[in-house]
């Protein structure tokens, strides 16, 4: 039987990303996200918020740490990972988190981009010309060579 582990989320960060480096020099960034769901219950409209812990590695971790902060929207594609451990008191603990595989910066809440394409860039950075051997990147994309 085949398996499939894919998560797609669009939400706002609940805390500033924490960037760390492993002993081998790999960057790892941990952060939280709130994802809202609006639904009808009879004649009433209700909202439900789900809080998700996320982890990004390598270049993506560095980009998230540099360009995203608490409250900013972020689009994530990733996979679920289940961690379990024993606490110092001997209690069994566990946590389900999302490992980021792809992401898209969506702009800040107060950004004039209206939540569309961007991140925290100045107008000059948004309109920076692409190298001549490549097609121009869409407005607001990061001009770094990142394997999203």
* Rg estimate, integer Å: 18 Å
CATH architecture: Beta Barrel
The fraction of residues assigned to DSSP E strands is over 45%
Low-confidence stretches: 112-148
C-alpha geometry: globular
Overall CATH class: Mainly Beta
Tally of separate domains: 1
- Report the mean per-residue pLDDT as an integer: 79
User: In total, how many beta strands?
Assistant: 6
Q: Which secondary-structure class do the elements indicate?
A: mainly beta
What's the total helix number? 2
How far apart, in Å, are the first and last alpha carbons? 29 Å
Q: Helicity, in percent? A: under 10%
- Strand arrangement, largest sheet? 1-3-4-6-5
**How would you sum up the major sheet?**
5 strands, mixed, barrel
What would you give as the CATH superfamily? Nucleic acid-binding proteins
Could you give the order of the helices and strands?
EEEEHEEH
| CATH fold topology | OB fold (Dihydrolipoamide Acetyltransferase, E2P)
Task: Please provide a brief summary of the model.
The chain is mainly beta and 148 residues long. It is built from 2 helices and 6 strands, in the order ββββαββα.
């Amino acid at each position: 039987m085949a398996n499939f582990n894919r998560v797609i989320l669009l939400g706002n960060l609940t805390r500033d990303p924490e960037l760390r480096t492993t002993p081998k020099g790999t960057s790892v960034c941990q952060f939280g996200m709130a994802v809202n769901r609006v639904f009808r219950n009879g004649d009433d409209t209700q909202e439900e918020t789900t809080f998700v812990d996320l982890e990004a590695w390598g270049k993506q971790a560095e980009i998230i740490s540099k360009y995203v902060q608490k409250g900013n929207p972020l689009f994530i594609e990733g996979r679920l990972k289940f961690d379990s451990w024993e606490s110092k008191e001997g209690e069994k603990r566990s946590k389900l988190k999302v490992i980021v595989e792809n992401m898209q910066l969506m702009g800040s809440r107060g950004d004039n981009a209206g939540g569309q394409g961007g991140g925290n860039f100045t107008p000059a950075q948004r309109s920076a010309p692409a190298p001549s051997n490549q097609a121009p990147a869409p407005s607001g994309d990061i001009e770094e060579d990142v394997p999203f």
